[in-house]
Design brief:
CATH class of the largest domain: Alpha Beta
Number of domains: 2
Structural class: alpha/beta
Low-confidence stretches: none
Largest sheet: 7 strands, parallel
């Protein structure tokens, strides 16, 4: 039996594929064009707009890892319903869903609809819920400022604690959950206690061997730089940071954390920087 991974060539899926392969487990990459896939395991063609193709891919697999593709709310809802339709038709033994940094608070959101339908179909489902990704700090205009000026500039308040995690940390949790279907519901991923901007700066300083300080940046200014990297997709990102400015913190619940539920602790920021060779 194999584990099927959506987005196998992307930032979230690729580390999961790699971690499963490293554990000598069979993996199948769910991609649009299998002929272009060069990673571990095999590849199968899927289309988030085609529930039939998804159902065919989901049959006879041990488990599925899925995260919704970037898109409009309507497109994401369509993808969520297609995945749910396919899962209902194929009844996989296990599904692990990543919230990709979002929450399930809005019951009408695509994520909430997907999770609700999977649970109503009585499919063993775990929801991996990270907060902010450390990889955000590797955006060229962020990391270059650290390396060239010793300033970590990011659009969160200096007192805003976050359960930061890397895609590698999320992959570790996903692999654990794919192999243990007794754990269902939300599993938070990230640092406990939460990290402040100064904590991040000190980690960079320790890794680089020179002083680094944190600077709380205006979300709109951050968005201007981000738009030059990713285009119009920067707009909702900016809004998410404006929302964060109204919140007290972004720290996962210890009771539902991967630390408590799986015994998996995320890498420290310094460990992560060293592993990536930043």
């Amino acid at each position: 039996m194999t584990y099927l991974i959506h987005g196998a060539t992307g930032a979230q899926g690729a580390p999961v594929i790699a971690a499963l392969a490293q554990a000598d487990l069979d993996v199948t990459a769910a991609v649009r064009t299998p002929s272009s896939y060069a990673g571990p395991g095999t590849a199968v063609a899927v289309d988030f707009t085609d529930a039939a193709s998804l159902a065919d891919a989901y049959r006879r697999v041990q488990g599925i890892f899925v995260h919704l593709p970037i898109g409009s709310p309507a497109d994401q809802l369509s993808a969520a319903n297609a995945v749910a339709d396919a899962a209902e038709a194929s009844t996989p033994a296990r599904v692990v869903v990543s919230t990709s940094g979002y929450t399930l608070e809005d019951p009408e959101s695509a994520l909430a609809v997907l999770v609700r339908r999977l649970e109503e179909a009585e499919i063993s489902t775990a929801i991996v819920q990270p907060r902010l990704y450390l990889e955000n700090l590797l955006l060229p205009f962020v990391v270059e400022s650290v390396q060239e000026r010793g300033i970590l500039s990011y659009p969160i308040r200096a007192d805003y604690a976050v359960s930061w995690s890397s895609h590698l940390d999320v992959a570790d949790v996903v692999v654990g959950l794919l192999q243990d279907d007794a754990i269902t519901g939300i599993v938070g991923v990230g640092a406990l206690p939460g990290l402040l901007g100064d904590d991040l700066a000190q980690s960079f300083a320790a890794h680089l061997g020179r002083p680094v300080r944190f600077d709380s940046r205006d979300p709109d200014a951050f968005g201007e730089d981000l738009a030059r990297v990713i285009g119009p997709g920067a707009a909702p990102v900016v809004e998410s940071y404006k929302w964060r400015a109204t919140q007290p913190h972004e720290v996962i619940d210890e009771a539902t954390s991967a630390q408590r539920r799986l015994g998996i602790t995320p890498r420290s920021v310094t460990e992560w920087l060293g592993q990536l060779g930043v």
